[in-house]
Amino acid sequence: MTQGVSTVKHVVAIASGKGGVGKSTVSVNLAVAAAQLGLKVGLLDADIYGPSQARLLGIADGVMPDVIEEKIFLPIQAHGVAAMSMAFLTREKTAMVWRGPMASGALQQMIESTQWGDLDVLFVDMPPGTGDIQLTLSQRTQLAGVVVVTTPQDIALIDARRAVEMFNKVSVPVLGMIQNMATHVCSNCGHEDPVFGSEGGVNLANEYDSRLLANIPLSRQIRETSDAGQPIVLAESESAGAMAYRDAAAEVMASLDAATRPATPTISMTD
Question: Reduced to 3 states, what is the DSSP secondary structure of residue 140?
């Protein structure tokens, strides 16, 4: 019985330089949006210290994955996505008081001991920063690419830049940037206000010759649906946020397919 990611077509990291920019919310919505495209999708919560995908996917505290042969995890299915998280192995209030090597070992076990199956794409919700977990994943897994999440705020962009630099150093392609909380949308009148700035993510993408995959608004809808375990691409499928996530997921998959497509043969005409 095959476990690990050897049968997964693409592994894509969703990363950020700092916490609080909405990376986990972006991860779950990209995963569910990709599943809505008819793809076989997995989601690995690699944030060992602060796992949040159980709540975002609506999986109740205390629900654990089935185990076969006493060592192989079966991912939990939710909203068309196969998910694995440290949250499934502990309770919601449990603090993981582990040093870096222990956290890296736990991540490695979740990667290698989960029966992911024949997925088209496995999204990995990374912890913030550029530490042990990021290095473990980059070294132990053949990443097809990374999507960097930031807000337009200068302080977030400083750390986002560090994340891009780290992935460049370990030769992981940056597929693009997602600018989260791009504008605040008033829940009463719909007025949009760029409270964190407006062009930060665009400028970062241009700086690294990358592209901006999406501008995601800061809205009450996204917060409420996330807390309820119903990603906005499902709960409010026609909202601006949902459409932005779906467009971003389609762009990510298109770039992955383009990268693996055989080069068009050329015919050399000789006398």
Answer: helix
